[in-house]
Design brief:
By secondary structure, this protein is an alpha/beta fold. It is built from 9 helices and 8 strands.
Length: 234
């Protein structure tokens, strides 16, 4: 499939560009230890990633993805503060880029596409991660989960990008690993690319009907460029 007449490519961050689960697990387990609670395996915490800081903290407190909404507010605020404070100081300990991310982004940028990040991660964490992983200068705009009143799977962040950049929905493509990304794109009537790796709660990303599905980030280039002379090896 080829995307025609596109100008803007929107990317999710966690699970799409970066594997941040190890550092998120470190922060969640630090939070739980500080509160005198049992910790959990990295693999289990990995399955909780994707809905923003508040949700992963609630899942940590409950020990499961299907968390209890009736968590004591005082406990939650204390836990959230512990998590955010620790995570802010440990953003890039074991967090890494997925294969071919940097080279592919550079190719798309060189070809004239406007690159955007739309993540549910708190905004203040985005830039330090981009700096730590040497992705600075590639993105024209970044939106965090707390940048607007609503976050993905709401279409609001995607529509906000269109308004901010002065482009139409038809001129944009959303790229993500989670159903939140694809549901947001579908609700915004924006075309999308689903990635099979990352954090999608054990579900097949194809079930949510992205326009195309890839298992390698580098494959994205071929959907936009007719010819390509770049080397995709990181």
């Amino acid at each position: 499939m080829k995307f025609n007449n596109k100008q803007v490519i929107l990317f999710d961050l966690d699970g799409t560009l970066i594997d941040s689960a190890p550092d998120l697990a470190l922060a969640i387990n630090h939070m739980l230890t500080t509160l005198g609670r049992d910790t959990f395996s990295d693999d289990l915490i990995r399955s909780w990633v994707g809905n923003g800081a508040q949700v992963i903290v609630k899942r940590g407190l409950c020990g499961k993805a299907d968390y209890d909404e009736n968590i004591d507010p005082e406990l939650f605020e204390k836990a959230l503060d512990i998590f955010l404070t620790f995570y802010a100081k440990n953003l890039c300990v074991d967090t890494v880029l997925y294969k071919n991310v940097r080279s592919t982004l550079k190719i798309l940028k060189a070809q004239g596409y406007r690159l955007i990040i739309v993540t549910n991660k708190p905004f203040d964490f985005i830039d330090p991660i981009l700096v730590g992983l040497e992705l600075t200068g590639l993105f024209e705009l970044c939106l965090g989960g707390d940048s607007l009143p609503e976050r993905k799977p709401s279409p609001l962040p995607l529509l906000h990008v269109c308004e901010k950049l002065g482009v139409t929905v038809d001129q944009c493509v959303m790229v993500g690993d989670s159903k939140n990304d694809i549901l947001a794109a579908n609700a915004a009537h924006m075309q999308s690319i689903g990635l099979t790796y990352g954090y999608n709660y054990g579900e097949d990303i194809g079930e949510h009907k992205p326009d195309v599905v890839f298992s390698d980030f580098a494959d994205i280039v071929a959907t936009f460029a007719v010819t390509n002379q770049y080397d995709l090896v990181d």
